[in-house]
Fold this protein.
Amino acid sequence: MSLFTRPCEFVAGAATLASLPEFNHPEIALIGRSNVGKSSLINALVGQKALARTSQNPGATKQLNFFLLAERLMLVDMPGYGYAKVSKQEKGQWDRLITSYLKGRPNLKRVLVLIDSRRGILEVDESFMTLLDDSAVSYQLVLTKCDTMKTSELEQAKHDCMRALSRHVAAHPDIITTSAANQFGIETLQEQLAPFAV
Ligand code: GDP
């Protein structure tokens, strides 16, 4: 998929609404619980080892990071949620930034909600999906770390996610299964995202 073999560059980091870059490109945002494998997935998607920083320190990313792919599609690395050690104040800042971003971004085409295949959908994921429903933002579930699952376990995990999805109006009905470790499903994900590029 040529879009994903072209250079992808970091263009901006935004910790406040005022510092968000202008919306010149269609955007795909990625989010999930801290440690879900988001940075690894972004790096696998664009074929660069260290574009998004994988962190040994879960919850370290507190800003929205914008990466421009082939000058045609913006990938937005959103700060993870569900990290136990954040203060109330930090949580409040996260809520405000994320909610305003989701509600006020006309070029946001889709949010990929990453779910660790071993853990399934947890309460924090459900809450975030409800926020997306309320914001009328189209989103799709992506299961990560699928290399750690047997085929039957993965089928069960997908099945459980499908059931949870039926309660959410803005969710895309397909769930994508991936592994950054062995590249499983990465091409499928690229194929799903390519039509959004202009
Ligand atoms: P982030 O905090 O969501 O950005 O997650 P990272 O990409 O930093 O990954 C968190 C941890 O999960 C790291 O220890 C990674 O090595 C591991 N990890 C990420 N992707 C995969 C995967 O596809 N398979 C496996 N087995 N481990 C993964």
User: Anything to note?
Assistant: The longest helix spans residues 88-103.
